[in-house]
Amino acid sequence: MKQLGTGIWSVGGNQGAAIFFNKVKEPTHSNIKVNITDSLIDGKWLPWGDNNLYPQEFAQKLDKTGVAIGGLKVLTSAHFGTGFQLYQGIETETTITFKERLTSSFPEINDFFIRSKFNIGISEIILDFETWGMAFPEYLLSPNGDKIISVRRIKAAEVRFQAPDNNGIINNIGVNSDWKNYKSENTAIIPCFNANIPINEIKDYCKQKGITKFTIPVIDTLLAEKTYPSVGWHSSFKNGWVDVVLALPEFKKAMFAQQLNVKYLIHVADDYFAHLYGFDVWQQFTPEEQQNKRTELVDLIDGELRGNKGAGKSIISPYFRDRDTGKEIKGILIEKIEQPQSNGDFLLDGSAGNYEILTPMGVDPCLINGGAFGGKTLSGSGSDKREAWTILCAKFPIRQIRTLQIFENIKYWNNWDQTLFGKFPNTNLTTLDKNPNGQTKIVN
Fold first, then answer.
1. Closest CA to 44 of 192, 176, 162
2. Whether 199 contacts 416, CB under 8 Å
3. By three-state DSSP, how is residue 5 classified?
4. 240-253 burial by CB neighbour count: b if 16+ within 10 A, else e?
């Protein structure tokens, strides 16, 4: 394998491939040398994030962020559509038509799909791709290497790239379910090839080296990143908006727990009882009896006025005059206590945070909660939902070409009919007057 230009690394294989990231060079005007092994895990694995636990820490925060979970489900649903569907291009003298085909029409393909549970596996790969911007399908070969007999998902969060060799090529990935407590013996090493290497060259190389399983990573376009892609919608997790959204439930919970949750404060003047029972009689009651009379009155008021039972009822509260000053005194005064948690404090902040989370996802809020955050209504019309879904699905072909490449790799390796290709058809919602079941199939 020749190096792809000065200081360039690429992922996988024994032939030229696309550039993935720049090699760290030694400074020309400094005595300090850059040693990449200083940041490697066990001297061989490229860390994902500063502490190599970026996906694990991200997943913990994601699990608490409801709107992000909902948005991610929308993305994976739009990408997967109604599932992988086989199509065949048919050429005539004047035109080319594309016909939907059943896998059962092709016994070898049908057997492969059943054996590998292809649609389930591809749905899991799509979830990884939409979450992390990359996915790792593992191709399993027949003993002689002539056929790919199955394909399955390697959990992307458990994968780390191996450091490049002297030619700048990443040849393997490491798979470990517990990178926090890393042990070399618990790390599976799997050969890795770049997606731009021709399949026939990978096939020859695997036969030559006796490789029986490998991966061709499905990786989103890299911008300034070196290996692990920076997913656009992760921006809200990095810039603090997710922290704002997650802080609100804790704040509200603390407010409910600590707040005095009393609706009415009932004031009863002692003169009320003196006039009710007579001054001399009231004075003859013991302090305990007087307190019991007060409690009985409050319970009576509370019981008669509580809930639906008290709807429309009135209470008579006599006025008295102070014996010394002649000032009017209300016998009973009921004062309503305002509940601060009922005024919607910080809900607009939460709405703004939710909007900032969904915006980089490209998901319209109406596809999750029925309307725009902070709007006058969250009802969301049917036409809004239909248009939002249609627009979202129209954006996905550029992403689907990467996951559909999995089928293309298998097709070329196994020498299946080259007129066949795969698609992820989607459901296009419509109105009942146009279609009795309210939906039609669209193929991007």
1. 162
2. no
3. coil
4. ebbebbbeeeeeee
Instruction: Give the pLDDT of residue 153.
Output: 97
Distance between CA atoms of 133 and 232, rounded to whole angstroms?
Answer: 9
Q: Cβ of 53: how many Cβ atoms within 10 Å?
A: 16
Angle between helices 66-80 and 118-132 (to 10 degrees): 130
Pairing of strands 8-11, 169-170: parallel
Q: Which of 278, 264, 340 has its CA nearest to residue 307?
A: 264
Taking the C-alpha atoms of residue 427 and residue 444, their distance in angstroms, rounded to an integer, is 11
The predicted model gives 133-145 an average pLDDT of 96
Label residue 159 exposed, middle or buried (CB < 10 Å: 0-12, 13-18, 19+): buried
**Residue closest to 142 by CA, chosen among 216, 210, 215, 217:** 210
Q: Which two tokens stand for residue 269?
A: 């003047």
**Predicted confidence (pLDDT) per residue in 176-190, tens digit:** 999 999 999 999 999
Provide the CB-side half-sphere exposure for 188 (13 A, CA): 13
**Which token pair is 380?**
């969301």
User: Which pLDDT score is estimated for 368?
Assistant: 85
DSSP 259-314: S----EEEEE-HHHHHHHH-HHHHHHS-HHHHHHHHHHHHHHHHHHHSGGGGTT--
**Structure-token pair, residue 429:** 């919602």
User: Which residue do the tokens 């020498």 mark?
Assistant: 415
The token duo for 336 is 């309503």
Domain boundaries, the chain: 8-231+390-442, 262-338
Whole-angstrom Cα distance, residue 71 to residue 57? Answer: 19
- As given in the structure block, the two tokens for residue 22 are 């720049």
DSSP state of 45: B
> Has this prediction a pTM greater than 0.70?
yes
Above pLDDT 90, what percent of the chain? 49
